[in-house]
Specification:
globular; seven-stranded mixed β-sheet; Aspartate Aminotransferase, domain 2; three-stranded antiparallel β-sheet; Aspartate Aminotransferase, domain 1; binds 4'-deoxy-4'-aminopyridoxal-5'-phosphate; alpha/beta; binds glutamic acid
Length: 395
């Protein structure tokens, strides 16, 4: 019997990745699963980025890079932050990591002490909670509702703050709800935060470009918060580069140095080829990825029309990212196709076993009445998945 560290028991398996693994197993047994679980664009990485990576290999990029990333890449990130977000950072304030997930891990480990409270509006992305637990922080969920567009309200924020509050994690566009905060909404939250100087903010902006309504707002742009905000972003979603593993933080210098210190002991830095390709990706005009956003937009309309007509599902139209987050609690206590439904997890199991459609339970996102449906897949597969779900639910 192995004596594992107690921190292993503090965190669950990533439910998004666990569902992806489950699908692979079922496929290996010959089942035809439509995957609406993993949040990963189904596009190929654009050719101009692939070419940059091939060139980097031919140019013999192979050695360790600076821990925080090539300076040319950090300069390209600063330029991107100026161009897209009107934020002013210097290359020393940037740390490039192995995906935004590692950026988040670095930042949380750099900031959170045992017992520190971290405010987490629900629904929240799965890994925030686990990373806070790894750091021995205390997760303080703040419930948002579908009726309230899944957005944190200033009064709710203020009511959750205590002397132990260390950090607030914001994510717009949101995974899993698709909510997008307007400048005005962030301004109202910023006014509360301005009064509590002990609170730092992590702003996860990885879905910045996957936006259908309104404009993206970076909370670091509010003057009172710039010195307390860690902006997280990455290339996985906008550039269809999930497997390349490249994300970054833009942070106050002291926090950037702390992230760099942790990373220097854990990974030594990000893969050099992915970094060279990222320079090319970030320097390209945003218009070069619009074809993917347009496709996501059409799929959003298709899934919205489909889900709206499935009785029992309560559903909101997302303004960004590529997920729907319907409430399935009206099915609790019912039996469908011989399966008793008591929880959202039961519902996802039903969809997987009977309709062969994979989704993720809202329990993983702190919202036990909902399930997450990713529409980062083809219109043909989405149409078929919706048909199967409707048939099953109408059973
Ligand atoms: N933040 C959010 C909200 C996400 O959905 C994801 C997953 N794609 C990440 C961060 C991590 O992204 P990656 O590590 O692929 O850059
Ligand atoms: N972020 C994606 C998701 O939410 C990918 C999986 C993961 O990184 O956990 O599905």
């Amino acid at each position: 019997m192995h004596r594992l560290a107690e921190r292993i028991d503090r965190i669950p398996l990533s439910q998004t990745l666990a569902m992806a693994a489950r699908e692979r197993e079922l496929r290996a047994t010959g089942q035809e699963i439509i995957s609406l679980s993993l949040g990963q664009p189904d596009f190929n990485t654009p050719d101009f980025i692939k070419e940059a990576a091939k060139q980097a290999i031919d140019d013999n990029y192979s050695a360790y890079t600076p821990v925080n990333g090539y300076v040319e890449l950090r300069e390209a990130i600063c330029e991107k932050l100026r161009r897209d977000n009107d934020l002013d950072y210097s290359p020393e304030q940037i740390v490039v990591s192995t995906g935004a997930k590692q950026s988040l891990a670095n930042a949380i480990l750099a900031l959170v002490n045992s017992g520190d409270e971290v405010l987490l509006p629900t629904p929240y992305w799965v890994s925030y909670e686990a990373l806070i637990r790894l750091a021995k922080g205390v997760v303080v969920p703040i419930t948002t509702t579908m009726a309230g567009q899944f957005k944190l309200k200033p009064a709710q924020l203020e009511a959750a703050i205590t002397a132990k509050t260390k950090l607030l994690i914001l994510n717009s566009p949101n995974n899993p709800s698709g909510a997008v905060y307007s400048h005005k909404e962030y301004q109202a939250l910023a006014e509360v935060l301005a009064r509590y100087s002990q609170i730092q903010i992590i702003s996860d902006e990885i879905y910045e470009h996957i936006l259908y309504e309104g404009e993206h707002c970076s909370i670091a742009g509010f003057e009172a918060l710039y010195d307390r905000t860690i902006t997280v972003n990455g290339l996985s979603k906008a550039f269809a580069m999930t497997g390349w593993r490249l994300g970054y933080v833009a942070a106050p210098l002291e926090v950037a140095k702390a992230c760099n210190k942790i990373q220097g002991q854990i990974t030594s830095g990000t893969n050099c080829i992915a970094q060279r390709a990222a320079i090319t990706a970030l320097q390209a005009p945003v218009a070069s990825i619009h074809y993917m956003v347009d496709a996501f937009s059409r799929r959003r309309d298709l899934v919205w029309e489909g889900l709206k007509h499935i009785p029992g599902l309560q559903v909101a139209r997302p303004a960004g990212a590529f997920y729907f987050f319907p409430d399935v609690s009206s099915f609790f206590g019912k039996t469908i196709a011989g399966h008793k439904i008591g929880t959202a997890t039961d519902f996802t199991e039903l969809l997987l076993s009977q309709a062969h459609v994979s989704t993720v339970t809202g329990e993983a996102f702190g919202s036990p009445n909902n399930i997450r449906i990713s529409y980062a897949t083809s219109e043909a597969l989405l149409t078929e998945a919706l048909r199967r779900i409707a048939v099953l639910v109408n059973h």
